[in-house]
Structures are given as structure tokens and as C-alpha cells.
Amino acid sequence: MLKRTYDKVNALFEESGGYLPARVLLENKITTIQIRSMLEDGKIERVSHGHYWNLMPGKKKPKNYKMLEACMTNPKAVICALSACYYHHLIDEEPEKLYIATARTDRGGMKLSFPVSRHYFSVQAFQDDVIEKKTASGLIRVYGMDRSVCDCIRLEREIGKEVVQTVVDRYNNSKKRKPQHLLAYADRMRFGQIAREYIEG
């Protein structure tokens, strides 16, 4: 490939914060053969079907790159439970798996390069308390703090009681907490009694 082609590709990635969908490359006359060549030469990385990260400048990916890449792969997906609590600074270490919520009607695949724990919600529950955060590299969709803590309590068997208790303790010391909001959500999801044992206990 010619240097001016690499320069053009670099500029396109730079404009979008380091990530690009394949359609943008194709719209700008970068062929599938050239894309394949850049993949083979280690110039770009496929992060999911139809999305790429630019390796040429040697930059590190953003801190929340897993969240960004999940939301690129499925624009309707929402970061939930323990991963959302990490986003809200209720735990210090990023979970090994990325917790993702989708509607029960959403059966689209989410092939990513890291482990994922996917949870399905009714359409109404799925839409509750979604926050959209624009970053320089893309959009992150994540549940609010109260709901995220509540979902951790609901998923105690998967997450572990000790980790959930750590989340709740940090939540109880937060000035942003809204326990009545959390408990109202827990009641709608029919595990209000269990949530109250954590929040009021």
C-alpha cells in the first residue's frame, strides 16, 4: 500500500477517536483487500464484526475500551451490574467479564475478544435508568448507579456475596446514592426483600 493510503486511513481513525466501522473505510474508497492487508500487517485490529482499532500510532486503547467495543458491536446493549459499578467507581478492579444487558427480544450475536456475561431483561426493565456517555472514542451506554447496585444484589450467586457486600458498602458511603430509587427498582423486579437486607441491614 502507498504511504498516502496509510496517511488517509490514519486521518480517518484520528477523526473518530481511534475506532472506525468498516463502512466508513469503504465509503472513503479503502477496499476490502486493503483492509485485509492492514489486518495481516498488524496496522489495524478487528475488535468485533465490522469495527476496527488503529494500531499504527501505537496508542493504548481508552480505559473503558471493553465497554466502548461492546456498545459498538450492539448499539442497543447496556453495561450493567458489576461492570457498571466499576464505571461508577464502586469497585477498584475491573471485572474479568464484561456484564452486558440486552432486551429479551435482542438475539443478535456479540462476538468480542474478551469474556462477556450477557443478561436479558424484559423490554420495560431493559429501558430503565440508561445513561448515555459520549467519549472521544465513542458512546458508552451504562445503567445508573442505583440500578447497577441492585442488579449486583440480584446476581449475587454469580458475582459472589463478598463482592456484592463490597459494592453495597461503597454505595452506602456515596453522596450520589438514592436508596429509594434502588428499592423501587428492586420491587419492580420482585426481589425487594433481598435488596432491603443489604441496603437497610
Describe the structure.
This protein is α+β, with helices and mostly antiparallel strands. It is built from eleven helices and eight strands. The strands form three sheets. A three-stranded antiparallel β-sheet has the order 1-3-2. A hairpin with a 2-residue loop joins strand 2 and strand 3. Helix 5 (81-87) runs antiparallel to helix 7 and helix 10 runs antiparallel to helix 11 (192-199). The termini are far apart.
What's the helix and strand layout?
Layout: H1 3-15, E1 19-21, H2 22-27, H3 32-40, E2 44-48, E3 51-54, H4 65-73, E4 78-79, H5 81-87, E5 98-103, E6 116-121, H6 123-127, E7 130-135, E8 138-143, H7 145-154, H8 156-159, H9 161-172, H10 179-188, H11 192-199
Parallel strand pairs: 5-6
Antiparallel strand pairs: 1-3, 2-3, 4-5, 7-8
Q: What would a concise description of this structure say?
A:
The chain is α+β, with helices and mostly antiparallel strands and 201 residues long.
Spell out the key features of this protein.
3-stranded mixed β-sheet, 46% helix, alpha+beta
- Number of DSSP helical runs: 11
In oligomeric terms, what are we looking at? single chain
The structure class reads alpha+beta
Which shape, going by the Cα principal axes? Answer: elongated
Annotation, overall tally of beta strands: 8
